[in-house]
Amino acid sequence: MSATDADPATRSPVPDTPRLRERAFLALQHLLPRRRLSALVHRLARSRKPWLKNLLIRGFMRYFRISLEDAEVRQAEGFVSFNAFFTRALVAGARPLPEDPDVIVSPADGRLYHAATLDGDRMLQAKGHDYSLAALLADHPRAAALADGLALTIYLAPYNYHRFHMPLDGQLVAMSHVPGDLFSVNETTARLLPGLFARNERVVCHFDTDCGPVAVVLVGALNVGSIETVWAGEVTGWGGREVRHYDYAAQGGVRLARGEELGRFNMGSTVIVVLPRGGAQVDGDVVAGQVVRVGQALARRHRG
């Protein structure tokens, strides 16, 4: 027996296998042709060949144990494509809203990463990582009014319902499409890759509401090269590096009620809602890490 074997203090540390796997996963993403891969998934997901779309849908449902009991279409064969299945509509009443109009609700089904007050312009991404609100909003002039506000970050896993809805009544006044990367936005990548949400492609929607200016940020991800809104259709593109800003205030804006559909992700991703300082507070039962659904109470609007 060697001296190293005899004295535990002198042994070489055993590698942390889970952490090694996580770093390997991030390294693989750096190596992958992320945009080309996402474009391929985009094409496959929209195929209307019955054998292919049914194979994809059934395999996906088995792997993720998905039920269609609250969907308008209840059979895999009833969807025209995998993307139609992925962005499926729910039956009326599947996601009821609270009666109290001051309750701000979850815009999506998923996991609540964070529900936290901003430290000035700094937003929490994961333990040890924060990022700039200005960067997330592509330096939009309305970013300053959201400093020290409240941010709610919801991650949608592949098995979640993938339409997203209004967290409160609002009037759309502006939208920005911000080109960027397409890294995965799962918990592992969020923990290891600084500035992830401000680095990925995203669509930023600015609303005027009764509690002040609100931003709803729709973050793209690996295999999510397409984000749609109900007023503009498919917003994200497959090229270009320029931020595009759209002014809706001059057109009278687009009025959307709490719970009304805002758009959809064509594969899983993240929704970030940023509320102004003093505009709202987190509901007392809400904790980071919990599973949430559209219409579930997350915060309460301040009046006065």
SSE blueprint:
Layout: H1 3-6, H2 17-31, H3 34-45, H4 50-64, H5 82-86, E1 103-105, E2 110-117, E3 122-126, E4 129-132, H6 133-136, E5 150-155, E6 163-165, E7 170-178, H7 187-192, H8 196-199, E8 202-209, E9 212-219, E10 227-229, E11 233-234, E12 244-247, E13 254-256, E14 261-265, E15 270-275, E16 280-282, E17 291-292, E18 297-301
Antiparallel strand pairs: 1-18, 2-5, 2-17, 3-4, 5-15, 6-14, 7-8, 7-12, 7-13, 8-9, 9-15, 10-11, 10-14, 16-18
Structure description:
The protein has 304 residues and is α+β, with helices and mostly antiparallel strands. The protein has two domains: 17-86, no CATH class; 103-301. Helices cover 21% and strands 29% of the residues. The chain has helices spanning 3-6, 17-31, 34-45, 50-64, 82-86, 133-136, 187-192, 196-199; strands spanning 103-105, 110-117, 122-126, 129-132, 150-155, 163-165, 170-178, 202-209, 212-219, 227-229, 233-234, 244-247, 254-256, 261-265, 270-275, 280-282, 291-292, 297-301. The strands form four sheets. Strands 2, 5, 7, 8, 9, 12, 13, 15 and 17 form a nine-stranded antiparallel beta sheet that branches. A four-stranded antiparallel beta sheet has the order 6-14-10-11, with no helix packed on it. Strands 1-18-16 form a three-stranded antiparallel beta sheet, with no helix packed on it. Strand 3 and strand 4 form a beta hairpin. It is globular and about 55 Å long.
